[in-house]
């Protein structure tokens, strides 16, 4: 067993957990951290896809009672049907665009330089939205309309650009549409379930040939780290947004992205998509 490889898997699993649900971009951080750890290539791409399953299962576990109730009462409960319909509406835009442009995005945009620029731009956008977004018209996911769901879905499409952050785009999109910070955050978690299962399943099928039995320990460590870390991060964020705004994450994005741009200015990146 390669201890160094296991350590890299643990680090990347924790990075996935910390960055998947916070508005700081998990894809962006995995690209950057993977580059610094010299963990790149087809096997690394398959690993990064796989550990996303661990992260999203943490959301399923936390909301297991709500998910179970919604599925069991779908035919008889208007509220349950509304939630499922809104998730379907919000899922469609990114699903269509991702299917059409996945190869182009992966080939040309998955690199630390574009990620760094997106981190800075996204941070500025969060600050502007926090300042100018309308007050919360929708206080709960149960009070969303199909238009609210579509607004979040269109915003999620922007996150196809690596470094934008799926959670950041959906939460900010919801707030721009008039949702409260808490409602937008909670709907972002619910929307992550079908979105990430679909994206991860599709990507794993394409990368399956890059997997082997020798990789099981590494994948297991990353998966568990992402799952346990995800439990902590989701609970933290739900508590955080009830009393605070996203400005600290915006400043983090701007500072981190700016430092990365400076670094890659003096140390040009020459990998895929450069």
Briefly characterize the structure.
The protein has 274 residues and is mainly alpha-helical. The protein is built from 11 helices and no strands.
For the report, how would you describe the main beta sheet? Answer: none
Number of domains: 1
Average pLDDT confidence is 89
Distance between the termini: 33 Å
Structural class determined from secondary elements: mainly alpha
Number of strands: 0
Gyration radius, rounded: 18 Å
Task: Give structural notes.
- The protein contains eleven helices and no strands.
- The protein has helices at residues 3-21, 26-36, 42-62, 64-72, 78-109, 112-132, 146-158, 166-176, 181-207, 216-241, 247-266.
- The chain has one domain.
- It is mainly α and 274 residues long.
- It comes from Candidatus Competibacter denitrificans Run_A_D11.
- Keywords: Antibiotic resistance, Cell membrane, Cell shape, Cell wall biogenesis/degradation, Hydrolase, Membrane, Peptidoglycan synthesis, Transmembrane, Transmembrane helix.
- It is a multi-pass membrane protein.
